[in-house]
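Just wondering, does anyone understand these tokens?
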Amino acid sequence: MTARWFSNGVVSSPHHLASSAGAQVLAAGGNAVDAAVAANLVLAVVTPYHCGVGGDLLAIVWDGRTNGIVSVGAAPQGATPETVRAAIEAGHGDSDVSFPGTAGMPMFGALPVTVPGAVAGWFDLLDRFGSRSFGDVAGPAIHLAAEGFLLSPHGAEYPQRAAARLGGQPNWADHYGRMQAGRRFVQSDLADTLRAIADEGPAGFYNGRIADAIVEVLQANGSSMTVDDLDRHEVEHVTPLSGRYRDLEVLELPPPTQGVTALTSLGILDRLGDRLPDDPAAAAHLQVEAIRAAMADREDHLGDPAHMRVGVDDLLASARLDAMASSIDPDRAGSWPPTRPAPGGTAYLCAADRDGLLVSLIQSNFVGFGSGVVVPGTGIGLHDRGAHFSLDPADPNAIGPGRRPMHTLIPAMALRDGTPELVFGTMGGDAQPQIHVQVLGHLADRDADPQDAVGAPRLVVEVADGSVAVEADADPAIADGLRARGHQVGELPARSHQAGHAHAIRVAAGGYEAGTDPRCEGGAIGH
């Protein structure tokens, strides 16, 4: 399968209905930001196991310059390690179901819910860069929520897997337990919520009836969230971080995201040679070692930037990356400390239009359906981004009043000589920076087209123990060569969800070249 070419614009996303909605906005005269928000809203309806109204949002927009948008919510003002532990002791939340290294921070339920940033992010994008109103671009999503859509066997796998862990969370079974393959899934409450947000703007979500409903269900289940916490949320406008890989300038978002981790991996690899070795196993070994080193760095340093002990400039300093690269043995696996895992439950999409406006956007519930808490009467499932906080006060990612957790979400772009060449990203939690490395490896080192780059077999480093899982359709020499170099190697099914859902757009002469990941039911659609 080769990349598709478009003269006037394209949207690439993990669900064909979302890509189609975005493409319709482009065809009707909307721009890339209008199309991206329309596609994201449809994803919130048709892939609630990846993203939704109750999640966070981050984006990079090119409008002649690079703009970073971070709409990541914070912990409640009443959240501390002590108050969370007290809530657990009172029977709210299961400290046994938590990520390693978080000192018992619950993964599901009300306690890991931070303020959802998506709604504010959508309005901010449209206000600053869009040409259509929220009500205009929300039309396809509202229709699909009100009238329903047919759930595919692929989509039905997610609620089937989630039922065992989330079926006991507030209202989850009543709402998402109805999702079955071949059945029309109707979400009339969510349609009403989207209409209310269109009528009332962000205030309709962060203050008022919806906010009251969010707070009521969270406080009933142990959270200290208040309407003031919701109303305090602000979108942050940031300058993307920049790093070099070959002749490309790679753009990632700063903390609390793990964009530093991607740039660290790429910086190490860039220092290991102008080109990765022709031997695919040797190239994979260097990628794995760069990833493991960068992930160890993430564990030690990343969190809310207001509370990090080491600044981004220091982490990405050239001399520091030189030293990290020189410590890697090209022939043998090194000894890197295990780090805290962060699985994915995310949707990444990208869009471009005829005027050169480019959008790299990622939006997430974190772990699948997120917390499992569904707000009564709204159809909103709340994320569990706070599950990555630690209850250890000494941890750089410790929970605290108004703090934001370390975020796995990293939309990306790459420029050549100051001009955009690539828009790319993926879902996948810990795998996100790893997939950035591999996709750029194909695009920059092997001159692959975007479809081949996102569709090629991948490997994923398990950060908890440093082992490597390789997709079954990869060259067998890769797994054999990694084992020979001392790596512990396992296998993933071909086109595994665990290897992420990546999408990419390359700016080409006269238009765009786009690819969409075969691991999902997406599409690159445009005109």
In short: The chain has a mean pLDDT of 93.
